């Protein structure tokens, strides 16, 4: 058990989370668990949300959230359990209502709930596509939207969304997951733009960590096995400090950003911006595009790379 300080002093040197209420979805897994524990240790009252299903969405064990909430309370923190699904509009409303009914307010949402149904694109079924989009992208929207009314009314609030380099860069066999995770980036930026005037912030974290999500990565070659061994060195608990910071008032000037956390590294990711332009005064034809435009831009094309090809250095 991770012990909390019973006087609830902030482990990060300030009292930024004292009296703040945070919802953490998917809190039963390694990353979500670490974030929920860290938030409680930092002084927050935490709604621990998890439906208790497998990565493929099978089963359903409400005691997963309850056990973590009890652990937090036994160690001196404040927490309540919730097992409503993020993937449905009405049940997502209940997650936020749980925070309001229990603590009377909501200050931050950590959208961490996730599932995984990997399949090469040409073999992926409609069900495999919809299931992952429903949890990651729809779930992030539903829970965020449920909190938005309250954030707007109080002129304050913070969203922390989990994205992935599978969406930011690419990976094999994850068209559903990659599309959802890149969609979350666009959603986060839209929230940041639309709600800035209400003092609401929205940021993304791309976590590098060993968890049940990464435990499903196939390892059939020496290179894949080596990658798995690197991932195993990345403690899921290392993601928590960034999530706590982004949920706190200390991050009041930080919004619309994408951060990566990889062991002891914090990475700021770039966002799409124009890098090259070509102009034809009389307009373009397909032939001129082939003859002039593409050769002029081709040196700036991105390679067809995967996440481990780009973030290839050893974790520190």
UniProtKB/TrEMBL annotation:
SMART domains per UniProt: PKS_KR
Gene3D superfamilies in the record: NAD(P)-binding Rossmann-like Domain
Matching InterPro entries: KR_dom (IPR057326), NAD(P)-bd_dom_sf (IPR036291), Peroxisomal_Beta-Oxidation (IPR051687), Sc_DH/Rdtase_CS (IPR020904), SDR_fam (IPR002347)
Every Ketoreductase domain range: 20-216
Family: Belongs to the short-chain dehydrogenases/reductases (SDR) family.
PANTHER family in the record: BLL2957 PROTEIN, DEHYDROGENASES, SHORT CHAIN
Designated name of the protein: NAD(P)-dependent dehydrogenase, short-chain alcohol dehydrogenase family
Organism per entry: Pollutimonas bauzanensis
């Amino acid at each position: 058990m991770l012990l909390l300080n019973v006087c609830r002093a902030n482990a990060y040197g300030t009292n930024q989370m004292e009296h703040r209420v945070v919802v953490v979805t998917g809190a039963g897994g390694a990353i979500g668990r670490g974030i929920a524990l860290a938030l409680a240790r930092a002084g927050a009252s935490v709604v621990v949300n998890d439906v208790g299903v497998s990565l493929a969405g099978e089963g359903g064990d409400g005691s997963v959230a309850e056990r973590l909430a009890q652990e937090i309370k036994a160690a001196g923190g404040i927490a309540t359990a919730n097992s409503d699904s993020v993937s449905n509009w009405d049940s997502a409303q209940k997650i936020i209502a749980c925070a309001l009914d229990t603590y009377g307010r909501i200050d931050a949402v950590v959208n961490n709930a996730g599932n995984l149904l990997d399949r090469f694109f040409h073999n992926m079924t409609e069900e495999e596509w919809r299931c992952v989009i429903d949890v990651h992208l729809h779930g992030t929207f539903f829970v965020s939207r449920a909190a938005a009314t309250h954030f707007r009314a109080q002129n304050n609030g913070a969203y922390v969304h989990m994205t992935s380099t599978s969406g930011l860069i690419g990976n094999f066999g994850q068209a559903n997951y990659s599309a959802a995770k890149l969609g979350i980036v666009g959603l986060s930026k839209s929230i940041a733009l639309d709600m800035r005037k209400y003092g609401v912030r929205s940021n993304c974290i791309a976590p590098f960590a060993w968890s049940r999500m990464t435990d499903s990565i196939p390892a059939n070659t020496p290179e894949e096995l080596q990658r798995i061994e690197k991932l195993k060195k990345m403690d899921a608990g290392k993601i928590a400090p960034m999530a706590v910071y982004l949920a706190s008032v200390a991050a009041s000037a930080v919004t619309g950003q994408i951060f990566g956390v990889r062991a002891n590294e914090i990475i700021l990711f770039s966002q799409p911006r124009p890098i090259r332009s070509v102009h034809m005064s009389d307009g373009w034809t397909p032939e001129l595009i082939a003859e002039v435009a593409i050769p002029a831009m081709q040196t700036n094309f991105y390679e067809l790379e995967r996440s481990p090809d780009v973030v290839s250095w050893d974790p520190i």
